[in-house]
Amino acid sequence: MQIAGSVAIVTGSNRGVGRELVEALLERGAATVYAAARTPATLEPVIALDPQRVIPVELDLTRGALIDAAAGVASDVTLVINNAAIAQFVPGLDAPRQSILDELMTNTMGTFDMVRAFTPVVEGNGGGAIVNVMSLQSFAGSLGMDGYSASKAATHSLTQSLRPALAARGIVLSGVYPGGIDTDMLKGIDAPKSSPMTVATGILDGVEAGQDDIFPDPVARFLGGIFQADPKRYEYLFANTPQLVAALEEARGSGDLVM
Ligand SMILES: NC(=O)c1ccc[n+]([C@@H]2O[C@H](COP(=O)([O-])OP(=O)(O)OC[C@H]3O[C@@H](n4cnc5c(N)ncnc54)[C@H](OP(=O)(O)O)[C@@H]3O)[C@@H](O)[C@H]2O)c1
């Protein structure tokens, strides 16, 4: 779909990738961008990007009533970007059960509720796209991020199973699988990271190309290639972070990965 002239909503748009998505949507000529955040007061710098075109919306993925209310307010959207998520770095066997449930409720169920609430809206506006931002961890569990990986894998499965139903309603349902990004989520973790604007640009390029699966940055494309060629190698790399980081450094050294 064309971004120019579209009406978009972005969850988690107050910081990180979400904020850059709002900026990139404005640059590409979106008519309106609903900037959703659970604390609207944090959206002031985002509204300042273009007060005429950026409309703040209160939206917490764990509160269904707010999602439904947002679908009522943003009733003209043609592009929905489900970007918001949480990540808790607690190894699974030691993780409090609640911590894994929180990741599933926010990342998986929150995204699912968004898709359900906005499908009739986008369909009613003549079709468009819904984009679920996930992770390379949708394809393999990562040590120390067990609940996060599980939530992104479940969201990946829902994205695949819902895709035909949305296509029948004129909506492209895209999945996004980024590598490490230089945002608060990965603060203090030593790994190759792309800038949030690189990722936002890659996401919108994929949306404009109508892609089902969007690998928006160089690490995503490199590791996505390993997943497609050798899923077992991919699984073992993600289960062993030092090996994963070493493989990325080796690829950078050899020129196979250019960041
Ligand atoms: N950073 C990475 O390395 C990386 C890698 C692969 C994929 N991703 C994915 O990329 C997306 C963006 O991540 P990011 O790096 O930009 O993360 P981030 O900097 O941690 O920002 C997360 C955003 O999600 C919002 N959020 C959290 N819980 C929410 C809830 N219950 N309801 C509504 N909003 C909520 C946060 O709002 P508050 O400010 O209110 O907390 C914030 O705006 C996520 O889906 C993430 O899983 C990130």
Question: Describe it for me?
Answer:
Belongs to the short-chain dehydrogenases/reductases (SDR) family. Keywords: Oxidoreductase. The protein is α/β, with parallel strands linked by helices. The chain has one domain (7-217): Rossmann fold, CATH 3.40.50.720. Helices cover 47% and strands 13% of the residues. The chain has nine helices and seven strands, in the order E-H-E-H-E-H-E-H-E-H-E-H-E-H-H-H. The chain has a seven-stranded parallel beta sheet, with helices on both faces. Strand 6, helix 6 and strand 7 (213-214) form a beta-alpha-beta unit. The chain is globular, with a radius of gyration of 18 Å. The structure holds NADP nicotinamide-adenine-dinucleotide phosphate. NADP nicotinamide-adenine-dinucleotide phosphate (NAP) binds next to helix 1.
Give a concise summary.
47% of the residues lie in helices and 13% in strands.
Task: Kindly report the average pLDDT value.
Answer: 97
Could you say which small molecules are bound to this protein? NADP nicotinamide-adenine-dinucleotide phosphate
Question: Total number of β-strand segments?
Answer: 7
- Approximate strand percentage: 5-15%
Structural shape: globular
**What's the CATH class label?**
Alpha Beta
Structurally, the number of domains stands at: 1
CATH homolog superfamily: NAD(P)-binding Rossmann-like Domain
For the sheet with most strands, the description reads: 7 strands, parallel
Order of helices and strands: EHEHEHEHEHEHEHHH
Query: According to CATH, what is the topology?
Result: Rossmann fold
CA radius of gyration is 18 Å
State the helix count.
Answer: 9
Give me the CATH architecture, please. 3-Layer(aba) Sandwich
